Amino acid sequence: MSVLICGSLAFDTITNFPGRFAQQILPEQVHILNVSFLVPTLRREFGGCAGNIAYTLQLLGGAPLVMAALGNDGGEYLQRLKSWGLDTSLVRQDTEAYTAQAIIITDQDNNQITAFHPGAMQQAHATAVPTERGDIALAIIAPDGRDAMIEHAAQLAAAKIPFVFDPGQGLPMFDGDELRRFTAQASWVAVNDYEARMLCERLGTTLEALSRQANLRGVIVTLAHDGCELWQDGQRTHVPGVAATEVLDPTGCGDALRGALLHGLSLGWTLERCMALGNQVGAIKIAQRGGQNHRIPAELIAVA
Q: Which residues contact 284 (CB under 8 A, 6 or more apart)?
């Protein structure tokens, strides 16, 4: 069965600042902020949450079906997806726009500042969820164009296809009523700890109360190196983190974890088992640069 991944395909320009943002930004001067960072290294990587999630899911043996938009410069990316053996029939190419672009600066504490140009992603809603297909058992709504996230969530809910709502950096685009609609349609919610606070604030609720919604099978809050916490029926469970052999680049770690989450959910695993694998995969990813360059050991795939 296929796992539908609704989200962005993007090119990531990744740079490293060999200092700390906190030492360069003066809080009392933020109203006249004018900061320049010297970034001696620069790389261009394939990225976007849909591409990153699909990469890890296919490494684990899953069957990702990417639904996203590329621009007129996206031919190389499309060929990359095809080289994995993916069905790319739901990848739209917009001849009038560039592929989405993320420019990421990471400091020595792994804090990140990102500038994002959505480009063709703004037309992602033009492709509808193919509800006539009988092979889609599970889906994720990851950061994408605003209209695409709203429409695709509604289409999945109408088709009774369970999905993970993963608002990520797109969360600020939505008000409380819109977020309530998403969480009422989803089967799972996945956020990091910062996003969890913002989500609860806009919903006027708590994680405990949110997890008691009848439709939700779990709320996942990632905690970076501390692992993650799971909220199910008002109960909190902590899943410990996994120590990385090296910390090189956090870009795409959350996406790698979500690829593992989808793999486990598609196999009917408990959330605890899904996230134990997710934490392992996240630790592997952070030791590699870029969102789609890590490898998963054969022994881990075997037990996964």
A: 244, 256, 294, 295, 296, 297
pLDDT at 30 over 80: no
Catalytic residue among 12, 94, 144, 255: 255
Does 147 participate in catalysis according to the annotation? Answer: no
Q: For residue range 131-168, what is the model confidence (pLDDT) as tens digits?
A: 999 999 999 999 999 999 999 999 999 999 999 999 99
Position 153, amino acid: A
CA distance 290 to 176: 33
The maximal CA–CA distance of the chain, rounded, in angstroms, is 57
Rounded distance between C-alpha atoms, residue 42 and residue 156, angstroms: 39
Q: What domains lie within the chain, and their CATH numbers? A: 2-8+49-96+129-303 (3.40.1190.20)
Q: What is the pTM of this model?
A: 0.91
What are the residue ranges of helices labelled H in the chain? 21-24, 49-59, 75-83, 146-158, 176-185, 193-203, 207-211, 253-266, 271-285, 298-303
